[in-house]
Every structure is written in structure tokens, then in C-alpha cells.
Amino acid sequence: MAELLSIAYIWPHPGQDEQTLQLLNGLYSLLSRKGYSRDLLYRDARAERLVNLRYWKSEEARQQAQEDPEVHRYWQRLPEICRVDGVVERLEEVSGSWSARAN
User: Fold this and answer.
1) Residues 10-58: pLDDT tens digits?
2) Considering the domain 4-93 in this protein, what is its CATH number?
3) N or C: which end of the chain has fewer CB within 10 A?
4) 17-47 burial string, b = 16+ CB within 10 Å, else e?
5) What 8-state DSSP symbol labels residue 86?
6) pTM for the structure as a whole
7) CA-only gyration radius of the chain, Å
């Protein structure tokens, strides 16, 4: 089964950059350890935001994470230190001559 790609934009509250990174590190470690997803985090060079790319292992893994109390504890703490917006739950690749899969 193919991975599912999600994207989210994360804006740390003023003075909360380090706390945001620490919380995200804990969340990403938990999601990885439980086999739900793998995450990549980028800092936007032109803005004060972070960009999270999450590759869910499967739709079932995503559903399990959404029901997991440990995961919810992290998600509930996020609004204290950052704003998460621009969430895209599921991106699908568009195939074409430019696609790595087409080669």
C-alpha cells in the first residue's frame, strides 16, 4: 500500500521556536516509533513558518494515529506554542513526463 502525503504549515508563537521544535521532535518520534508515519520538517527561508511533510504509512495508520491517546496529547499541546494552519490531509501525485515514476 502506498504512503499518503500530508502537509501542514506551522507558525511558532513569538519566543516559542525552541519549544515548538522540541514538541514536534517528540511527536515525530512517537509517530515513527508506532509505525504511523515519517515526517520531514523544513523552515521557510522567507517567512517565520515551518513546513511539515508527513508520509503516513497507510490510511489505516493515519486512522490509528487519530485515535491514539498518546498522539492526541501532543496535538492538544500544539496551540499553546504554535499555530498550525494550511493543513492538506492528502496529496496525490500527478504523473507525467516530469514525474520520477514516469522515468
Assistant:
1) 999 999 999 999 999 999 999 999 999 999 999 998 888 999 999 999 9
2) 3.30.70.100
3) C
4) eeebbebbeebbebbeeeebbebeeeeeeee
5) E
6) 0.86
7) 15
Length of the chain in terms of residues written:
103
CB 8 within 8 A of CB 84: yes
Annotated domain spans of the chain: 4-93
Long-range contacts of 14-22 (CB under 8 A, 24+ apart): 16/81, 16/82, 19/81, 20/50, 20/81, 20/82
Residue 55: closest CA among 41, 70, 69, 40: 40
* Helix or strand (DSSP H, E) at 85: strand 82-91
